[in-house]
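ESCALATION

Customer reports they have been waiting on this structure for their group meeting. Please prioritize. Original submission:
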Amino acid sequence: MEERMQRDNVAEIALSAMVSMIMIILFSAIVAGMALMMIEQAFMESRTQSVEQSETLNSIPLVLVFEIESFDDTGNTNDQLYMMFKFPYAGSNIPDINVKWAMMCDIMDIDPSSVNNKVQHTLVYSSGDFDEATELSGNAQNAAAIDSFAPGTYYHIIIDVDDPTRTPQDPPVECDLVEDMSATLVLAVENGRTSELDFYIPTDVRTGHDLMS
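Update from on-call: job pushed to the front of the queue and completed.
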């Protein structure tokens, strides 16, 4: 009788050990599965972020032509810049309103009276977007022509940089084109890169003057 009870106890212990081992194996499998899912998800998110970052960093315009379109040496109207460009490295289309420009200059360059009045160096600027850009077959000033820029396609735009809010004898509110001035044109893509074009407008400048030389 005693021997039979010992065999029953041994069997019970073995069964308990087997059940415990099965539970451990099942738990380990579940944990391993969850770990693999987490690792896979992390790699997928990392890849998505890498692709998005790559597309963002590659969204930079390549300027091919940058010149004076029109110049008014008697006032502050009808000043225009012409630009031909493309996005050779973009991974997808870029909305035209997501591309911005800003022209920055020193008030002392565009307003001689500032020097006589001992005005300190002050940065003034004009800004806008590329909504009016068109393909080369267009007139470079048509907001309805396109809605986005396709990678590798050539576009052009005429940028108005006059200061219509300025009245004669008043200090400039925005950066205006004048002779013998230095300025910087900044191009920026929303959530992307920026690029700068430093240029100089000489005395007796005329339409078609190359600002990249």
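Sent to customer with the following note: The radius of gyration is 33 Å.
Escalation resolved.
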